[in-house]
Design brief:
Order of helices and strands: HHHHHHHHHHHEE
Radius of gyration: 19 Å
Helix content: 40-55%
Strand order of the largest sheet: 1-2
Number of strands: 2
Low-confidence stretches: none
Shape: elongated
Structural class: mainly alpha
């Protein structure tokens, strides 16, 4: 029977315990070797799979090695270099603009504060959180991507809907020591089992505490819609 624990704090504690055991090596899946590459990869990953991004950046990072390289790039050429990425032209213009700011205002160094990062073109809190966590070893919040949103709502950890409100809500119930890993665990489970359209509830380590389980419930709390 999929029933959540009495409080959200207890629910989070049990979810984390089970997922840590299920995915002991869960971590970021983007390939990068420095802060610039991390920033570029995360910008490219918006509404695009990490697998696709890693395929594109394998060559991209050979061609563009410094912020100056991106700042001086021809936008049409950069667009062509990332043409298999979703919204590639927009992302090409964002990368060039962000690189200009990095060169002109930060001496070619990737900023290390939320405010400075989110001032860069194409960088929101999600991207900034990833760069801070994996580039600067600074954890200021919780990265809320599509998996984190879906699973957090399905598991009745939050009822909020927008990434910003979800993040603020999660930060009140997820222990700060688990903020970074919470995202990785949710992504791992979202990819492996709790998929968007057809979650494998029968083979889910969280099924007994999930109020969205298709085995016991008619509604997907992530969308508020009945299961198809």
């Amino acid at each position: 029977m999929g029933s959540p624990l009495p409080t959200r704090e207890e629910q989070v504690e049990e979810v984390l315990e089970r997922l840590y055991e299920e995915y002991p090596d869960s971590t970021i899946s983007l390939d990068f070797s420095n802060r610039l590459e991390l920033l570029v990869a995360v910008v490219l990953s918006a509404q695009c799979t990490d697998e696709r991004v890693n395929q594109v950046t394998a060559d991209l990072f050979e061609k563009y090695r410094t912020p100056e390289d991106y700042a001086n790039a021809d936008v049409d050429e950069l667009d062509e270099d990332i043409s298999s990425i979703t919204y590639h032209y927009n992302k090409a213009t964002w990368l060039k603009s962000a690189a200009n700011t990095i060169v002109e205002e930060h001496g070619g160094e990737i900023p290390d504060t939320m405010e400075e990062l989110t001032d860069l073109k194409g960088v929101g809190r999600k991207t900034a959180n990833v760069v801070l966590q994996h580039g600067h070893d600074t954890v200021e919040g919780i990265v809320v991507d599509t998996h984190v949103r879906r699973l957090s709502r399905r598991l009745a950890i939050t009822e909020e809907e927008t990434p910003e409100r979800i993040e603020r809500d999660l930060m009140t119930v997820v222990p700060e020591a688990d903020w970074q890993q919470y995202t990785h665990l949710m992504i791992s489970h979202g990819r492996a089992t709790c998929t968007a359209r057809n979650p494998d509830c029968a083979d889910c380590v969280l099924e007994t505490i999930c109020p969205s389980s298709k085995l016991d419930h008619e509604v997907d709390l992530a969308s508020g819609e009945p299961w198809g």
